[in-house]
Amino acid sequence: MVSFQPILASDAIHAKGKHLFKEDGTQFIIKGIAFPTPPETMLIEDHRGYNPDAWLKILHQLRDSGLEFNAVRMYRMYPERVDYSEFFRGAAALGVYVIVPLTAAAGPGVLDRKLAAPKCYKSKLFKYGARAIREYLKYPNVLAGVVGNEVMNDEKAWLAAPCIRAYARDLKVFMDSMVEKGAANRTVPLIYAAQDSATIGGAAVDKDRVMKLTVDYLTCSEEGKGLDFPDVEGAEPTNAEHFSGNKFGLSPIDIYGVNIESWCSSTQDFYKNPDGTPGSYYSLWQALRNTSIPIIFSEMGCPHSQFDRDDLDRKTKEGTRDWAQIPVVLNDMADSWSGFIAYTYDGPKDFVMFDGGEWNGKDVLTPTKDFENFKHQLKKVSRRGPNITFDQFDDGRFVPSRCDDVQTELLSCCGVRLFNDEKMSSYAHMIDVHTGREVHNNMWLTVAAFLFALGATFWIHKSYRAKQNAAEGISLLNGNLIENIKYKSVSS
């Protein structure tokens, strides 16, 4: 049985410089696994697929197996409709942190990468995210929230990138307001999860450079000098600053996640691929090691169908992975990497560690040799030396890229021109931090009150005139009646 400590209010995780830390200043390294998503039918029929007993049963299964893990990544949750308190508290009791989604597959929580900025960021997305944040901040074991997963995968989808910045920026302003007004005692780190195989600018731009451009764009914070390009294709050129000069004083994201599917050979090592080319993890580490924020593998694992595919003497029928990259991430890359989420307990068949799926949302599945290898590799490194404390790090030399430098590189390498996210609407103060209700603009409330009062005055005046006219009509009728009676009396 693996020993663990329950997560208390003082154990919340913070991103500081290039690393993650607990409240007491000790470094935190993510050693996690992707949590299965309930089937679509259950999402509709059973409170959006939520069965706290079944969800916690999976965490107990992992703990009882001897897996030395500390986190899970969730992919689909409905915080606006479902109370997840039993799951979060149960996970905290088992010493498990949770990475939560801050977007949704459908409804108001969608960030549509098919739409270019500013159309991809609407107020309903912020309202969804802000209300989700209010719920998640109740639990100290909510490690971080994912504001976007594999959004910027090609040139067209990159046009939605400013919406990621604007959405994350507004959520951070909202969380800061919650802390300032006593509605929360901390903020939740925000993650963007990038696809390692994303392309931009054609074959001439290698994927490591794409990963570097992505994090540089999402974290750039110095004021740009202004470039003579239109904000969007077809618009008139303006001498306007592109990207945010970050007048809000914050980096939009706190953690950069990479969803990676390489390390597909049992003869792989950190420095070299089996064919002698630079190792995929090594080249990525070299490209990102000077990044100003923590980096994690937000999904990590080669597809079963690809593992040892060119080495028939080693390849198994199931494509069982050896997970030998775990010591590499936790040791060789530890100067800039803060851990990983292994992919996956259950999900796409080419990545699962458990048999018997797809998961029905109720019962635990059966561990495979792939899972046993994963557990073995974690055990080899989990008992290494004590964590380093925050005051032993000197991250002052790692600063965000200048926004105008990133713009110049995106244009020169890839022909990508982005909308200035500072020109996008901010919805950060649309939701009341205490109640979660929408806050209406006072000016419009005043206008509405004036129009209501004006309408009421008009109605009262109209009603008065109607009554007056009616009274005059009755008086006239009575007068005519009296005159008629008098006339008939004289005639007789």
> Could you give the count of β-strands?
14
Mean pLDDT: 84
Count of helical stretches:
12
Main sheet specs: 8 strands, parallel, barrel
The best one-word shape is globular
The secondary structure category is: alpha/beta
Written as H for each helix and E for each strand, in order along the chain, the element string is EEEHHEHEHEHHEHEEEHEHEEEHHH
Radius of gyration: 30 Å
Structure overview:
The protein has twelve helices and 14 strands. The strands form four sheets. The protein has an eight-stranded parallel barrel, surrounded by four helices. A two-stranded antiparallel ribbon has the order 1-2. Strands 8-9 form a two-stranded antiparallel sheet. The termini are far apart. A hairpin with an 8-residue loop joins β8 and β9. The protein has 492 residues and is an alpha/beta fold. Residues 224-249, 443-449 and 485-492 have low confidence and may be disordered. The chain has helices at 40-45, 52-64, 85-93, 123-136, 155-158, 161-180, 207-219, 280-288, 325-332, 369-382, 403-414, 442-491; strands at residues 13-16, 19-22, 30-34, 71-73, 97-101, 142-149, 190-195, 227-229, 238-240, 255-260, 295-300, 337-342, 354-355, 366-367. Helix content is 35%, strand content 13%.
